[in-house]
Design a protein that fits this description.
Largest sheet: 4 strands, antiparallel
Number of domains: 2
Strand content: 15-25%
CATH class of the largest domain: Alpha Beta
CATH topology of the largest domain: Alpha-Beta Plaits
C-alpha cells in the first residue's frame, strides 16, 4: 500500500498472528491520520528476531555482484560500495561499473532501491575545482555530497567528524532534557540508580561508533568530554571546587 507523503500523514505498521485452522497467517495493518486500513496478509517474511532470517538473507544475496576492485558493505537494507585509487576517473569508472551490475541484479530479483537516499561521496585530500562526473543508478543521477549519514554516523569528505560531534551533542542534550527529572539534583533516586541511567541511556549516545570518529580533532573530543563532565556534576550535585577526575574516580567512570 502506498501512502501519500506530507507533513500531516503518518504511517505505522502493526503485525499480529491470526490462526486459521492449523496454519498461522501473519497480518499487517496501516494507520494514517487515525484511520486504520483493513488487514492484509504478509505473504513472505520471517518472525522478528528469528535465526532463520540471517540465513535466508545470506542465501538471497549469495549471487550479489562482486568486483575485485570494489568492497561491498551489505547490512540488511543499508548498504555501501567502496573503492580506492589515485586516479579519480578510474574510481568513478569502477563505481559506475559496479552500479550497473547491481542495477541488473536488482532488476533480475525485483529488489526495490530508494534512489533518493542513495548518495555518492569522495574522500580526498586538498581541494579541487574540477567537476566530478555524475554517477547514474536506476535511471537517476546520484549527487556528490560533502557529507553522508551511514548507520547514524555523519561522515565528511575530509573525515573530520566535526559535524558528527555536533550531531551527537545535540542528540545527547535532547535525551538529557527528557530524563533530567530522574537524574537531576532534586531527584529522589539514589546515586547508584542515577549512574545506571547515565551508563545505559546517555553514555551510549556519546560513545556510539567511537572507534571510528575518535580520529577527530582534540577540540571536538574535548567538547564531548565536557558534556559528560557537566552531566556527572549534575547527577552527583558536586560543588565547583571538586575536580572532574575525582568524580570519575569515585564513580569508577
Amino acid at each position: 500500500m502506498m501512502l501519500p507523503a506530507g507533513k500531516n500523514v503518518t504511517s505505522r505498521f502493526t503485525a499480529g498472528l491470526l490462526k486459521e485452522g492449523r496454519k498461522i497467517i501473519r497480518k499487517f495493518q496501516v494507520k494514517s491520520n487515525q484511520v486504520l486500513s483493513t488487514f492484509g496478509n504478509i505473504q513472505a517474511e520471517t518472525p522478528k528476531g528469528s535465526s532463520l532470517s540471517s540465513t535466508l538473507y545470506n542465501i538471497f544475496n549469495s549471487d550479489f555482484p562482486r568486483n575485485d576492485k570494489v568492497l561491498n558493505c551489505l547490512f540488511a537494507d543499508d548498504s555501501a560500495i567502496l573503492t580506492q585509487g589515485r586516479n579519480i576517473r578510474f574510481i568513478i569508472k569502477t563505481l559506475q561499473s559496479q552500479l550497473d551490475s547491481i542495477e541488473y541484479w536488482c532488476t533480475k530479483w525485483r529488489v526495490a532501491i530508494n534512489t533518493d537516499k542513495t548518495k555518492a561521496i569522495l574522500f580526498r585530500k586538498g581541494h579541487s575545482s574540477k567537476v566530478l562526473k555524475t554517477l547514474s543508478f536506476m535511471d537517476e543521477d546520484l549527487t556528490w555530497e560533502n557529507q553522508v549519514k551511514y548507520f547514524g554516523l555523519i561522515v565528511h569528505i575530509k573525515l573530520s567528524f566535526r559535524k558528527h560531534a555536533k550531531y551527537n551533542s545535540d542528540k545527547f542534550w535532547n535525551k538529557v532534557h527528557m530524563i533530567i527529572p530522574l537524574i537531576g539534583r532534586h531527584s529522589p533516586l539514589s546515586l547508584n540508580n542515577k549512574v545506571i541511567l547515565f551508563k545505559q541511556i546517555l553514555r551510549p549516545i556519546l560513545t556510539y561508533s567511537a572507534p571510528i570518529w575518535c580520529t577527530t580533532a582534540k577540540t571536538h573530543r574535548r567538547k564531548i568530554q565536557t558534556l559528560r563532565n557537566k552531566i556527572l556534576r549534575i547527577i552527583t550535585n558536586t560543588p565547583w571546587f571538586v575536580r572532574n577526575d575525582v568524580i570519575h574516580k569515585d564513580l569508577k567512570i
